[in-house]
Design goal:
Largest sheet of chain A: 8 strands, parallel
Helix content of chain A: 25-40%
Order of helices and strands of chain A: EHEHEHEHEEHHEHEH
Mean pLDDT of chain A: 93
Largest interface: A-B, 32 and 32 residues
Number of strands of chain A: 8
Number of helices of chain A: 8
Radius of gyration of chain A: 16 Å
Oligomer: homodimer
Strand content of chain A: 15-25%
Distance between the termini of chain A: 32 Å
Shape of chain A: globular
Structural class of chain A: alpha/beta
Low-confidence stretches of chain A: none
Chain lengths: 218, 218
């Protein structure tokens, strides 16, 4: 299923975002805004997470993209509820767009809903989508200097997942230096180095997700 | 040297861009707008290109970033003229910002000037900077599906450089499929698979750059 979205007419994005958060809290559905560069492995991470957690949590995924529906097709093949949102050229999702995607998909009884934002390390960090948590991905091939260059997303995120850890030996990426740079911007950020391909580190990330769903519902 | 920029007040970005192009044509300086995702290897590609071509061309680089000056420092260490432009949170460069960066840096006698745009596969494609040519980078770890997801930049670019070719065996990246997808969007695009690390393919890209400078000056 594909939905065409364009920027919300309302100027009160923050108010709309708060309304979404309130509703999701009442329903006990944790909405996570998942942000990263293009090609950092968002869909691969989600695919593994859905497969690993499907006995524990009822999960849905909203895929936001400028064009194409390749990601939603992958997620649907795993048996999870999914919707593809086209952003009409927009480089980020806002609260109004998120609400329209939620309504089109339907989300009753979902414990955990991922909004896979448009692949972009800049603009998505500037718009509140109404999510309860923000998670960002940085992949090893992108380099450990990204917190220096794109500080806002690191400042805003509750968790940082460092993906493609299985490729560490081929790239000049210093995990400790990256963690230190992220923590300097955001001392409270949780950091999970993982490989969705080999499974390395997925346990800690998935345990954290289950804890966060528990906290959200309490 | 660092310059702080913010969005141009003028609404006539296209007119400003045309004025830059006209002036650069008169001066015989080819300005190239270099665009890509964060971490695709723009600075590494430029470093290798400058080192290889410094006997043939007088090259300058304008580094646009939201924060940090790590890239400009790298370029200056190669002995090339360089300036770091901070975009004040902006996710792209426009024509007015480009002009202010050019004027602050100085560009008399330069054959080739690279504008290393903000790392972003979306917004920079929407703004004419006044460059004579647009070159985009896609790195192997980002995946061969990017033309499907971010078509505008592929449509707009004169050349596509596929970087990090030395990592091909570790990623599921089909070079032919990627080329075919890019050519479907833009039949005239020149495509250069390279590794700036091993030097593979750099010759063809650099020969193309020298040809383009010759055409621009004629």
């Amino acid at each position: 299923m594909v939905i065409e979205l364009n920027a919300s007419v309302t100027e009160s994005n923050d108010r709309d975002a708060d309304a979404i958060r309130k509703e999701m809290k009442e329903k006990g559905s944790l909405l996570i805004n998942l942000m990263s560069s293009p090609g950092s492995g968002k869909t691969t991470l989600l695919s593994r997470t859905i497969t690993d957690l499907k006995g524990d949590l009822n999960i849905a995924v909203m895929e936001a993209d400028i064009a194409s529906d390749v990601d939603a097709v992958k997620i649907e093949n795993l048996g999870a509820t999914s919707i593809q949102a086209h952003t009409d050229g927009m480089c980020h999702m806002d609260a109004g767009m998120t609400k329209r995607a939620l309504d089109s998909m339907g989300y009753d009884g979902k414990d955990l809903i991922f909004l896979e934002n448009v692949g972009n390390l800049i603009c998505p960090a500037e718009f509140d989508t109404g999510a309860g948590l923000k998670v960002m991905i940085l992949s090893v091939p992108e380099g450990d200097d990204k917190p220096l260059k794109y500080p806002l997303m690191f400042e805003q995120s509750d968790a940082l997942v460092i993906t493609k850890m299985d490729t560490l030996e081929y790239f000049d990426f210093d995990v400790e230096k990256c963690k230190e740079r992220a923590k300097r911007l955001n001392p409270d950020i949780s950091i999970f180095p993982v490989s969705a391909k080999t499974g390395q580190g997925m346990d800690s990330f998935e345990t954290w997700l289950k804890e966060q769903v528990g906290i959200w519902k309490s």
